[in-house]
Amino acid sequence: MPKKTGILDKLKKLKIRVNIKKHKKKTSKKLAPPPPPPKLIPRGYKIVERYPLYEPFVHVAIGQNPKTGEYKYFLDELQLDTLERAIYNRILDILLAEIEPPKEEVKDPRKFFAEEAKKIVDKYRISLGWLPEVSWYKILYHAEKDLVGFGPIDALMRDPNIEDISCDGVNKPVYVWHRKYESIETNLKFSSDEELDNLVVKLVHMAGKHVSSAFPIVDASLPGKHRLAVCYRREVTPFGTAFTIR
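Above: the chain sequence. Below: its structure as tokens.
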């Protein structure tokens, strides 16, 4: 079975754009759009601003702690339920095995992936099991995010208000530099070394470089001209892998 980084090898010649237009389905049958994400109202915080990042899948809520006056950045993203997650895991392996690289360079690899993934999903839809149409929207969104996007931080990379993204290790909150609220904590954390390491390996691969315990410090340029700085694993930092994107 091919490794999950295979799609990156297949698409490594493509220039990945973060801000893209929503893929439109070429079909005569009108499909109901997915429902909007549930509203997120954290306890102890007053919501001072909301805005969409990629409707209807992910929104942002900026909260303020009334006691300290500090702001916090809350990602509000549609998640997969248990059944959707099981089918998502199965379809990932199929996508990695069957998506062929484009014959020529394309400007929008996300659109290319969405079109190819839709064809493959239609091919295997019956054997994978029945799901409502909204579930397939969610599954394809997460597949695009995880395979050709920036994984867990994909939504942050979509936000034009963010200038820097940084993480100092496992169980440490991801921080962003917001144009309006400056340096603020987000509700995003990495709960294990494996999760954080996998993201950083993916980011470094997207930048066309290699990171390992033997070469733990990397400075590279991501698609979109974002600068990436990485310290890999606990040999370098006490709390595990750390990264900054600006």
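The two ends are 35 Å apart (CA to CA).
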